[in-house]
Write a structure and sequence with these properties.
The mean pLDDT is 89. It is built from 17 helices and eleven strands. Strand 4 and strand 5 form a beta hairpin. It folds into three domains: 204 residues, Beta-Lactamase; 88 residues, Winged helix-like DNA-binding domain superfamily/Winged helix DNA-binding domain (Arc Repressor Mutant, subunit A, Orthogonal Bundle); 79 residues. By secondary structure, the protein is an alpha+beta fold.
Length: 423
């Protein structure tokens, strides 16, 4: 066994003999549920997590994003800004060594897979391709998925992989963090043959990850393009509007109006806007016209037309991003873009309806998908912590004691008589 438990193969060890021992151990685990020596503790723990997540040893990765949806998701991901650095530090090493450079997001989904052409073709046969989900809960033990699950660098050698078709490969990966928040953004990985079981490959990816974090810390926030016209309204009571190179914080009413106009590029009449915005029938058209006049002044000339009220240029919103990804079946991407309920303090009837519909559609997709990582993200968000349907789905997908306890408490609250308070 190696002295460092995070190193897969100690110097001088016979890789072929270790593979034979690991394959016997893997067979023992899949048949009897026990992990014999000399399987490393980090691998044994990962095998157990994989089995609890319902991963089968003969499974395969699923591709969740393709074509334009993949391109849009990658372009918006924070790690896109350090891909040139990854290529500079690892590209030649991967190509010359017949290896692959891979980068995944925080959910273990591969965003980029680059390197030696023949190796890429071989890896493609097991869906080690951009857009495929390689989290532990999807495909079991593997370096990028296990690195983000544990939030630490890890090396996985040959038959240490949980899925059999991945066992000819060896990989090493390290998580990359947002330098400002500490949040895991994803992981950088090197994948190839048994030669990567050397301790240097683990140190290499760890150094690359630290370099990426340093570069992210130095990069100034990206400036919006001068022609951009974008609205951010999820998780905010006052939306942010990017227009003409400026970022503006809108009033609540202006936020509501732009959300509705963004959804209706054909325009809305004054009566339609009145019904969409105001519960009280006593609100007059004069009040609405005054709000629209003020909004026209905020937007600048030529952007807000009347008869019907409409925007003269397309307005992209974070709401439409979530909707597009859901429609494409890209649930992970939709959840990533969903930063909270739409204008949560708004009581405008049309906004309330849209807010609830968007949340319900995303919840339904999460429950149907039964992905424990995504369900956990929703369950631990402020808008999901009291959601019994999500917790039931999570208890089925990941039946830990903590999850079951939370579900029991929620169901007890639901069963309590109205007005009953526990002291």
């Amino acid at each position: 066994m190696p002295n460092d438990p995070w190193i897969a193969l100690e110097p001088g060890a016979d890789p072929a003999e270790r593979v034979r021992v690991l394959r016997r151990a893997h067979q023992t685990f899949t048949e009897a549920g026990t992990v014999p020596r000399p399987v490393r503790a980090v691998v044994a723990d990962s095998w157990r997590r994989s089995a609890r997540a319902g991963v089968g040893p003969d499974g395969t990765a699923s591709v969740e994003l393709t074509d334009g949806d993949l391109g849009a998701y990658r372009s918006e991901h924070p790690l896109a800004r350090v891909m040139p650095l990854f290529r500079e530090l690892m590209g030649t090493f991967a190509a010359d060594g017949e290896h692959l450079l891979a980068v995944c997001d925080a959910h273990g989904r591969l965003l980029w897979v680059e390197g030696h052409a023949a190796t890429r073709r071989q890896a493609g046969r097991m869906n080690f391709v951009p857009g495929a989900r390689w989290s532990e809960t999807a495909v079991g033990t593997n370096a990028p998925g296990t690195a983000v699950a544990l939030d630490r660098p890890v090396q996985v050698f040959a038959a240490e992989h949980f899925i059999r078709r991945v066992q000819p490969w060896t990989c090493a990966a390290a998580p990359v963090h947002d330098p400002r928040t500490g949040r895991v953004l994803g992981a950088v990985d090197i994948t190839g043959g048994n030669g990567l079981a050397h301790p240097h490959s683990l140190g290499f990816v760890q150094a690359v990850a630290r370099a990426a974090e340093s570069q992210l810390a130095l990069l100034a926030p990206e400036r919006p393009e001068a022609g951009a016209f974008e609205l951010t309204a999820l998780g905010r009571d006052e939306a942010l509007l990017v227009t003409g190179g400026r970022t503006l914080r809108l009033s609540r009413r202006h936020s509501e109006i732009l959300v509705l106009l963004a959804r209706h590029p054909e325009g809305l009449t004054g009566d339609e806007l009145l019904c969409a915005l105001y519960e009280a029938e006593s609100v007059t058209p004069v009040t609405l016209r005054a709000e629209l006049a003020r909004l026209r002044g905020v937007l600048g000339p030529g952007l807000l037309a009347s008869r019907p009220y409409r925007l003269t240029v397309p307005l992209e919103s974070d709401v439409s991003v979530v909707e597009r990804r859901l429609a494409a079946g890209a649930v992970t991407g939709a959840l990533t873009a969903y930063t909270g309920p739409l204008l949560p303090a708004s009581q405008a009837p049309a906004v309330v309806w849209l807010r609830q519909r968007l949340a319900d559609e995303l919840r339904a997709a999460l429950i149907a998908g039964r992905d424990p990582d995504l369900l956990t993200d929703w369950a631990h968000a402020p808008w999901g912590e009291d959601d019994p349907d999500i917790w039931r789905a999570l208890a089925a997908a990941r039946p830990s004691a903590a999850v079951r306890a939370r579900l029991t408490a929620l169901e007890a609250e639901l069963a309590a008589p109205a007005g009953w308070t526990h002291f």
